[in-house]
Amino acid sequence: MIDRAVVVGAGLTGLTAARFLHASGAAVTVYEQDFTLGGHARSETMHGVPYEPNGAHIFHTSDRSVWRMVTSLVRMLPYRHRVLTDVAGEMFSWPIQVDELHRLDAYSRIVKELDVRPSVIDSTNFETWCVSQMGETLYGLFIDGYTTKQWGRPGSMLAADLGPKRVELRTDGNRDLFRDPYQGWPALGYGALADALGQDVEIVLGQAVTLDSLPDVVAPGIPVVVTAPLDAFCDEVYGALEWRGVRLTAQWQPGTRFAQEAMVVNRPDPAVPYTRTIETKHVLGGNLQPPGTVLMHEYPGAPAKHYPVPDADGDNRRRQEEYESLLLHVDRNPLIPAGRLARYTYINMDQAMTEGVRAANRAYGAMP
Fold it and tell me: What is the helix (H) or strand (E) element at residue 36, kind and residue range?
């Protein structure tokens, strides 16, 4: 049992860990280098219309206990997320719906390619995985350009395991992006969820904590939950991990009910500099009191740590494992990495919160 713990990072993972440690009787301090809570899951409003400076975030889960926790903290709007893809100026569902493909000029070629797909998926890289699933034409129309823009490299240089997380060819008519039974968006934005998670714990904003500065903030033996990127936390002793960031612009459009047909529209055309447009106002459903809307354009390649890069050669994963091993060999404090940034892996918000619970349990059992 412990009576004290420290959490590095005030994103959803760190705040969830802090909440559960506090509920277990431990005094907790959370250190966050930024001056806002919630990490990448952040929302703002313009003239009463919500928008998200770090891109679209939709809370969805199949875990009833996580959904109960979230809905006990904030009111959730009953929003189910749908995404469209702009192919040559015409809108198609994403994930790709087979029953919509007849509208494409290349339909006959697509059908032939679907008929000769291999029985065994080629998992050499992301591109071969996708082509095995849908053929070269659909890959070229829906995925290739978007991938190259998003990741700064072609799909042949990305790991195949990116495929099952992001790509699906559907025949069942389900046009929701996520199949999870529980989906929604916080009525007062993600800041309200972050505030509710951290309301009972001590939080220090504007202070970065690294491995070298741990003695300044925590006594020996006290467990530390680390949700910061491990390359930054360890002062890049093994070199920098590769990250892909995005930059968004927000445009207020007065008098516009909706600027596009869905909250997110993918833009795979390589001639278009942005990867997608986002209109968060769709989460309001029938509550359309605001007279205008905010349309965001998401540009890839910003110097931010939004997405870990799943390179096909696995170099980034090996470097991450070096950092994780380094944490295991620190004797002064038990160090527990948790969350998307610290584990260098793409996870959803419900998984981030679940990781926070698990990290709290590990910290709780870290000392006799």
Answer: none
